[in-house]
Amino acid sequence: MDTFNTLLLGFISVVLVNNLVLTKFLGICPFLGVSGRIDMALGMGLAVTFVVTLSGTLTWLIDHLLLIGTPLEVTRYVCFILVIAGAVQLVEMYLRKFFPSLYDSFGIFLPLITTNCAILGLCLFINLWEVDSLLDAVVRSFGAGIGFTMAICIMAGIRENLNLADVPGCLKGAPITLITAGLLTLAFMGFAGMIR
Amino acid sequence: MTDKSTVPAGLYKDTLLAGLWRENPVFRLLLGMCPTLAVTAAVKPAFTMGCCVIFVLLCSNIVVSLMRNLLKPHLRILMFTLTIAAFVTIADLFLKAFQPMMSEVLGPYVPLIIVNCIIICRAEACASKNGLIVSIVDAVGMGIGFTLSLCVLASVRELLSTGAIFEVQILSLLKEGGWFVPWAAMSMPVGAFITLGLLLGLVNLVSKKGQLKG
After folding, report:
1. Range of the domain at B159
2. pLDDT category of residue A148 using cuts at 50, 70 and 90
3. How many CB atoms lie within 10 A of CB B209?
4. Residue B117 and residue A176: Cβ atoms within 8 Å?
5. Distance between CA A6 and CA A195 in Å, rounded?
6. Is there a domain that residue B14 lies in?
């Protein structure tokens, strides 16, 4: 029961309180660029969730089995980025072989996930938060993906309505999206302090 | 595309200035948004971040430009990323050794330079197609443009959240007998998003005015 509580708290903390997009500013590029339509945003979010869970788990394993306490620790970033690139490639190959229709609908988003800050950021944050059990690392990685999906879908929903709004000329496009995101983070600040 | 020997003299200046205003990475290309928003709560970390990015951008542009003829197209991006990761590790270890306080403040945002879109974009768009000197000039221009934008954003936020710029008190605070009430929200994510949004709007407005005149 105790472990379950820790896991649940870790999950909620990474989805709501430490949401990667809205409080850590990670994955802003797809947040601003892609999130024009809810279905696209959902697809992107799910792809990211999958890759982030996979690479979060793998990097935790590599970090704890190979790197910590050895001179190899300096190669941490190189290892992490290789794992992420590998995971993305793996997902791409798997989808192309077994789910071609899903693969087609992701299109260019899949390879772009490699340079999505949210993924590398989560791997680094797991290292920084000193997560010490594999299960915890898996749950938090999955939570980070869910948090990303939630943020990007909320934003897509707002932007669909924003197209109809009368926005001053110089604020059209990215500026008004950023301001909207600012108001959204204000709402999410309400969760701060709920959990450490 | 152009070889070093056939480059017209104006190109270097043009490349340098492009990074500063016309193709400013933050305000025009909207690249590298994550560090832009995350480290600009005060000018000092923003400036340090800018310097790290200049270093990494310069080194990776040099290396990519030198090995541009050896690259296989499908391994290109992977090679870029690995080169960048190596230089980011150097920058990170340097900060940890000589600026431990700054390293603490910047935290994971230093290693996140690896996935900063500016660097990979310059490697792809400039260094992998141009000679060494053009790549160096481009890296310096883009790097300075990035650092300047970061510092502008950070100045606004630091001024409004603490009444100081670069830790020098400019507005006298209410609790010290002055008049200025700090805006706490400015140092939080809200401040980052809204300030950047308004600054982008301002840049759009200014460049539109410029176009009408010219």
Report:
1. 10-213
2. very high
3. 11
4. no
5. 11
6. yes
